Amino acid sequence: MRVNVTVNGEPRQADDVWEGESLLYALRERLGLPGSKNACEQGECGSCTVYLDGQPACSCLVAAGQAEGREVRTVEGLADGERLDPVQEAFVECGAVQCGFCTPGLLVTAHDLIARTADPSDAEIREALAGNLCRCTGYETILDAVRLAAARKERV
Ligand code: FES
Ligand code: FES
């Protein structure tokens, strides 16, 4: 089947989508957007997190057909052209990336938290990121990055 979906602000079509194919697969393999990662394909790790109609969702748990007519924003859509989103900049500056497999999902989740919560507490950050697993960093640098991005947002 063909799926029509708006991705990062552009109307896109994914062809030859099979029934039960995940949105994650369609994004990566049919639409040329490999930023969202497939680490568990079971909704456990958050590495595939994208915005779906403005809400973070595990794209491995969404059938591509369910995205018909909807809006998806992936990690590739966070930056403004060549300019990184402040959350991305903070992850770079804080060294919050090791292997990077968890990073796209964490960026989308952190981006959402900062957009809807002014000056989030550590508890709020931890709760927001609870569905995003990282095997490498020990989370401290990730927390630092989210704190930094949130603090910068407060100042603008
Ligand atoms: S790949 Fe989707 S939650 Fe792990
Ligand atoms: S940086 Fe490797 S899983 Fe998070």
UniProtKB/TrEMBL annotation:
Q: Which UniProt keywords apply?
A: 2Fe-2S, Iron, Iron-sulfur, Metal-binding, Oxidoreductase
Q: Which InterPro entries match?
A: 2Fe-2S-bd (IPR002888), 2Fe-2S-bd_dom_sf (IPR036884), 2Fe-2S_ferredoxin-like_sf (IPR036010), 2Fe-2S_ferredoxin-type (IPR001041), 2Fe2S_fd_BS (IPR006058), Beta-grasp_dom_sf (IPR012675), Diverse_Oxidoreductases (IPR051452)
Family matches, as PANTHER family: OXIDOREDUCTASE WITH IRON-SULFUR SUBUNIT, XANTHINE DEHYDROGENASE IRON-SULFUR-BINDING SUBUNIT XDHC-RELATED
* Name used for this protein in its record: Carbon-monoxide dehydrogenase small subunit
Residue ranges annotated for the 2Fe-2S ferredoxin-type domain, each copy included: 1-78
| GO MF term list | 2 iron, 2 sulfur cluster binding; anaerobic carbon-monoxide dehydrogenase activity; metal ion binding
This entry's Enzyme Commission designation comes to 1.2.7.4
Check the record and name the PROSITE patterns matching this protein.
Answer: 2FE2S_FER_1, 2FE2S_FER_2
Source organism superkingdom: Bacteria
